[in-house]
Hints:
By secondary structure, this protein is an alpha/beta fold. It has 2 domains: 6-190, Vaccinia Virus protein VP39 (Rossmann fold, 3-Layer(aba) Sandwich); 200-261, rRNA adenine dimethylase, C-terminal domain (Helicase, Ruva Protein, domain 3, Orthogonal Bundle). The chain has helices at 16-26, 45-48, 62-71, 109-117, 136-143, 153-161, 200-210, 218-221, 228-237, 251-261, and strands spanning 12-13, 33-37, 54-59, 81-85, 99-103, 129-135, 162-170, 175-176, 183-190. The strands form 2 sheets. Strands 4-3-2-5-6-9-7 form a 7-stranded mixed sheet, sandwiched between helices. Helix 3 links the parallel strand 3 and strand 4.
Amino acid sequence: MIYPRKQFGQHWLKSEKALAKILQAANIQPSDRVLEIGPGTGILTIKLLPLVRSLVAIEIDRDLCQTLRQKFAVPIAEQKLELIEGDILSLPLPPACTKVVANIPYNITSPILEKLLGSISNPVQQFEQIVLLVQKEIGDRIVAKAGHKAYGAMSVRVQYLAECSFICDVPASAFVPPPKVDSAVVSICPRLLTQPASDPKFLETVIKLGFATKRKMLRNNLGTVVERDRLVNILAEMQINPQVRAEDLSVEQWIKLSESLK
């Protein structure tokens, strides 16, 4: 008997309804090569295998890997499944995979997102779609629009790199053991902006400074990169209230602001 390990943030999904929502959101095609992060007991793996061309599952837990090898024994799912024991954060992304479908560990959600998407200045353009089951708070931040209380630096960074959609809520009772928080399924489709920032590194800096103290006005947070009076003039030219805060600017406005500050 394998028990969930707290050190790996393991909460195993048991809800057939949630599984169906994940698969529906991923719109799996027979030609898809899918990456699954943290297959756990294999409940999602076994649903994916008949639908895909190939599946790479990366699991850090040695005991779970042994169980999965036994569960998907010879012929190993008609040779569709490659099971890798290791840490997704320290391994190279499987180059053939074009989709990610996973219930990821909540304690490393942000690093996983950066691994899969890259950063504004160094984007990863490998995946056509990423469907993740994440902590609801993180899911809300990923899809939040400007002015929403969940909107923050993560929202801007992820939405700069991808189209993000909320799929559904998943209650804590859908897991074993139930986590202390609810969850959500989100779909993230990486894409290139038609008008990206000309200096992505500078945009990253401006976003980081802008959200450094969330409740402060931008004219106070951006003092290290622009004089206060100049920023007020730039905001006026953009028809933005000079008392604006970071969470009030859309992704497009952040790009325009960074262009004007250079």
